[in-house]
Amino acid sequence: MKKNLGIFLLALLSCFLFLAGCGGGTGDVENKDKDITGITFANATYTYDGTEKTLFVTGNLPEGVNAAYTGNKGTDVGVYNAEATLSGAGYNTLTLTATLTIEANGGYQNITGITFADAAYTYDGTEKTLLITGNLPQGVNAEYTNNKRTDAGEYDAAVRLSGEGYNPLNLTAKLTISRADIAGVTISDLTAPYNGAAQSITVVGTIPGGVTVAYTCNGAVGNGAVNAGSYAIKATLTGVNYNTLTLNAALTIQKLDITGVTLSNGTFEYDSLPHGISVVGDVPDGVSVTYTCNGAEGNEAAEGGTYTVVATLTGINYNTLELTATLKINSTEKKLFSAVNGGNVYFQNDLDADSLYSYKGTSLAKVSGDIVGGFAPIGSDLYFIITGLFSTSIKKLSGTAVSTVYGDANGSEALISDGTNLYYTINNLIISTSKNGIYKIDPSSSAAPVRISTDKAEYPVYYNGYIYYSNGGDHGYLYKVSVTASEAAGTLVYSEKVSDIIISGGELYFNQHSLLAAALYKYNLTSAGAAQKLTTDAGMYLAKVGNYLYYVNKDLLTSNLFGDGIYRVDVNASGSLPGTKFKEIEASSLNSDGTNLYYCKLSNKHFYKYVLSTEAETDLMADFVVSVSETASGYTRIAEHNGEVYFTNILDSGALYKYNITSKAMYRVTADSVSNVYFYNGYIYYSTYFLTNYALFRRALSASGETEKISTGRCDNLNFAGNYIYYTDVNMVLSKNKICRMDLDGQNVETLYSSANVHILSMDVVGNYLYFCTNPTIGYKKIFQL
Predict the structure, then answer these.
(1) What is the spatial distance between Cα 271 and Cα 629, in angstroms, rounded to a whole number?
(2) Which of 766, 763, 769, 757 is CA-nearest to residue 783?
(3) Residue 293 near residue 271, CB atoms below 8 Å
(4) Residues 615 and 604 sit within 8 Å (Cβ to Cβ)
(5) How many CB atoms lie within 10 A of CB 357?
(6) Which run of H or E residues covers position 758?
(7) CA–CA distances in Å: residue 458 to residues 283, 412, 426
(8) How many CB atoms neighbour CB 679 within 10 A?
(9) What is the secondary structure of 205-266 as a DSSP string?
(10) What's the CA gap between 30 and 610, in Å, rounded?
(11) Helix (H, G, I), strand (E, B) or coil at 299
């Protein structure tokens, strides 16, 4: 009973301990792999007998545990380091080492007298071999490993000598094949002009097989460049069997000169608007043009003067070209007629084609577009001559209404009045000289004009029943004729040549011309004595106010000494001295109403009033703005090439322009009027015209291209196919159109189709056929196939 109780208590204790160890309480039980025990891997020594020897572990391997061996087998004499790795699920891996030794057999012979030496070669593409030297004993064989190679490198070769009755002998040696030098290849410097294409340097010579070439240009991958400049080209030749070879050369792409462009002088009449000159020609792609005008940016000027315009053409591939030309803005002095009537000022506006303007109070207004040749007031009405290319007429301004009084004044050149009648002069030098003379017309009647004098009269003035004038038929002497005369010759008054005559208070004022000079004189019509010299100056546009005679100084000596301007002289002066400069301005068309002066300033072509009593100057055209009105003439054509738009500019008489879409720059390509423009095969073709004269030109688009005329006819509807140009040849005179074909250079012209009075609208080449549309004078439009 006690024995059973002890067994029960022992079992209970074991259960408790088991539960505690298995985590049945508050702790965890750690699950560990087992160690492999009871296994040995012992060293072993054998005597060479030509058979393989092996080392293995001893002991009982646990279930699921395997042994993996390295270096545990050997046959030849030597020491082998063996290793056994024991592993399996639930067991810690165990690695064991041992030594397998195979000793020489004293009963076998050693192999002697044999060497296996290192050898070194240079790669030449053939196989290199290491062999033993010496005499092998009979029955001994040599087995080689890694003793043959072709490519460059360092190789570990081995040989095993073995035979029956001999201890085996293992020998090692190094086989070294050195890389060869690359020979027979070069690169050379290259200097070439820019041509728009890539230019490069390449290796010359035979490159060995297996060798590759890598190029760099200024450090970047590549061996060439397009743009002008200096480039360092490096060629690196590499291959597994060759020493790397680096070759260097210089690539130089030279800039081109810019040709075929010009900058010509330009002269423009001042009109308050800017005018400029531009480069003409086909500016190469990539070239930009900048301008300076008297050192400031731009190529235009508005104010009168002489300007130096410099055009600088620059581009990375072109030598800078600087062109210089002169731009002149002239303010041409010409006689502009003016008059004061009813307190209003009437004058010609030089900035509006000499049209008639009025200034009333403070208001400027355009009266008419007529070009006035002279004024003559009668009462409140103002009469004036209108000059045209083929005829002359006399008109009347009454209030704001303009009407024609007489429409056949036959080229009259002056108009005056006596308060009732009008007088005009004709003094043609060549044509219709029989009509020369002084004519009187009554504007209130429809009666025909009466010629009162047959003299060739200039500078006429009226005084006290007579017309006084310079007689061009008698040396320009001073003459007079009665206003009641008819077909009469005038009477000589003063036998000196006179011009620029005005009348004031019974006295004539004029320029008197001598052999060497001219001067201002006064002639009293009452006393009819000698003329009185007032000054040594010669003057134009005489105007008398008070005791002074005002004039624009035209005396070369005085104006050079004292400068241009309006001068004056006392009408009672002795005449031995120059006049006094009154106003230092360049002026023309000086006039007076007896109290104030009126004149046109050449600097801005504005008309001014000058009040002598207050010295106040008023610009009568202060509010005038030039109206920009362009006349479109010529053809309108447009074409695109290489990112630039070519077009005929109707605002420049059809000259050919081009517009760069990227740079927004616009250039004038031709100075001629152009009707069509085409591009083909590296050429630009364009047709020019002047009135009825036409021509067809072409120019190579390369930098060195030149312009050549290939046809003198009117060539329209150009179509290019292969080596031919198909076009319509239009005969403007004979109204005969032809379809022709010629070579690209204009040679070998052939007529393919000819028909009178047929207008060919359009034409196109498709495949082997030519299609065209006609527009006959009578009938329907038709499409033809040729």
Answers:
(1) 12
(2) 763
(3) no
(4) no
(5) 23
(6) strand 758-766
(7) 55, 11, 9
(8) 16
(9) EPPPTT-EEEEEETTEE-SEESSSEEEEEEEEEEETTEEEEEEEEEEEEEPBPP-SEE---E
(10) 125
(11) coil
- Per-residue tokens: 650: 């109707």
DSSP letters, 601-620, are ETTT--EEEEETTTTEEEET
CA gap 549, 567 in Å, rounded: 8
State the Cα–Cα distance between residues 158 and 130, nearest whole angstrom. 9
Cα separations in angstroms, 673 against 170, 670, 727? 99, 8, 19
How far apart CA 379 and CA 419 sit, in angstroms, is 7
Please name which of 276, 217, 229, 282 lies closest in space to residue 253, comparing C-alpha atoms. 229
d(CA 375, CA 440): 15
Structure tokens at 633: 């003439």
- For the chain, what is the largest distance between any 2 Cα atoms, rounded to a whole number of angstroms? 194
Residue-wise pLDDT tens digits, 684-742? 898 887 656 788 988 888 766 677 889 988 888 899 999 999 998 877 555 567 888 99
Residues sharing a CB contact under 8 Å with residue 183, sequence separation 6 or more, in sequence order: none
CA 745 to chain centre: 28
HEC profile of 11-30: HHHHHHHHHHHCCCCCCCCC
User: In the β-sheet with 548-553, what is the strand arrangement from edge to edge?
Assistant: 539-545, 548-553, 566-570, 580-583
In whole angstroms, what is the distance from residue 90 CA to residue 1 CA? Answer: 44
Lookup: tokens for 66: 């395997």
CA dist., res. 283 & res. 683, Å (int) = 14
Per the listing, tokens 């064989």 go with 141
Asked whether 439 and 457 are in contact (CB, 8 A), the reply is no
Q: Is the pTM of this model over 0.70?
A: no
Kindly list the distances between the CA atom of residue 631 and the CA atoms of 356, 370, 525, 614, 649, in Å, as whole numbers in the listed order: 22, 19, 53, 45, 11
Greatest mean pLDDT range, 18-27, 206-215, 371-380, 389-398? 206-215
How large a percentage of the chain has pLDDT more than 70? 88
Contact indicator for 279, 287 with CB cutoff of 8 Å: no
Nearest CA among 457, 386, 396, 456 for reference residue 422: 396
Q: What percent of the chain is helix, strand and coil (3-state, nearest 5)?
A: 5, 55, 40
For 60, counting Cβ atoms within 10 Å of its Cβ (0-12 exposed, 13-18 middle, 19+ buried), the class is exposed
> Rounded to whole angstroms, how far apart are CA atoms 364 and 352?
13
pLDDT band at 91 (very low <50, low <70, confident <90, very high): very high
pLDDT tens for each residue of 426-470: 887 555 578 889 999 999 888 889 999 999 999 999 999 999 999
> 264: which 2 tokens?
């010509």
The residue type of 746 is: G
Q: H/E element holding 9?
A: helix 2-21
Angstrom distances, CA of residue 718 to CA of 73, 527, 590, 684, 708 = 94, 82, 59, 12, 17
CB of 422 closer than 8 Å to CB of 411: no
Question: In whole angstroms, what is the distance from residue 377 CA to residue 325 CA?
Answer: 48
Distance CA(492)–CA(472), nearest Å, equals 12
Which residue type occupies 311? Answer: A
Question: Are the beta carbons of 367 and 374 closer than 8 angstroms?
Answer: no
